[in-house]
Amino acid sequence: MKSIEELKQLVFNGMLLEDSFERLEKDGISVKSGHHVIPVERIDESDFSPTIIHRANKMASVYIVFFCIENSVRELITDRLAERKGVDWWDTSVPKKIKDSVQSLKEKEEINRYHAQRSSSLIGYTMLGNLAQIIINNWDDFSDLFPSQAWINARFTDLEMSRNIIMHTGILPDIEIERIESICRDWIRQVG
Question: So which domain of life are we looking at (predicted)?
Answer without folding.
Answer: Bacteria
